[in-house]
Every structure is written in C-alpha cells, then in structure tokens.
C-alpha cells in the first residue's frame, strides 16, 4: 500500500503504449506488430461461459488486472456469480480471516459460504 505501492492510482492501458513496450523489449528476437494481438484471448475463447456452472468469481479493484474479470459489476448468471469488491484483491476472500479484514471482505465470505451451503444441500437432495 501507499506510500510503497508500485501501481499508480490511475493506470490507463493503451494498446499503442503496450505494443511499444513489447516491441522495445523483444524486437531483437523477431517481435513484430503482427504478433501483438490484444484481443486474441477474447476472440478465441470468448468472454462468456455458456456451459460453465457453479463458479464464484471474486475480483477486487485493488488489482491492476481487475479489468480482465468475467464481469465488472456484482452480478450472477445462472450458477455463475461475480463479486466485485472495491477495497480488495481478486483472491483476498480466499485467505484466512485477519483482524484487519474490511467489512466488504467479511460480507463477501459470508455470501460465498451461503452459496456453498446451498449447493451442498441441493446436491444432497439429488442423492
């Protein structure tokens, strides 16, 4: 965290800047503009998961890569859940409890526990 945080508060991602960084670093090994494909993963795998089930995605706005999350808002589609927490990182909710945990993390953990319990009850009823 501040004042030692290596990430700027506002860190825009610009394709041209990223290409220039890559080109400067890897030009000597044959890197070209054709190899720079910032939308490749979306074009090949999509941004929707129509066959996925029972996943809880948790993303935190403290991550510089939070923009790559499944959803940018808290929502759910079927049994896919996306929780976006302003004062968290993407895996903070999976760590053990700590006295300095924020209220939003405590609430997210409770929501996740509730969803896990519902799923276990549902699966038990199917047996």
TrEMBL record:
One of its GO terms (molecular function) is serine-type exopeptidase activity. Transmembrane segments: none annotated. Keywords: Glycoprotein, Hydrolase, Protease, Signal. Gene3D superfamilies: alpha/beta hydrolase. Pfam families: Peptidase_S28. The keyword Signal applies. Belongs to the peptidase S28 family. This is Uncharacterized protein.
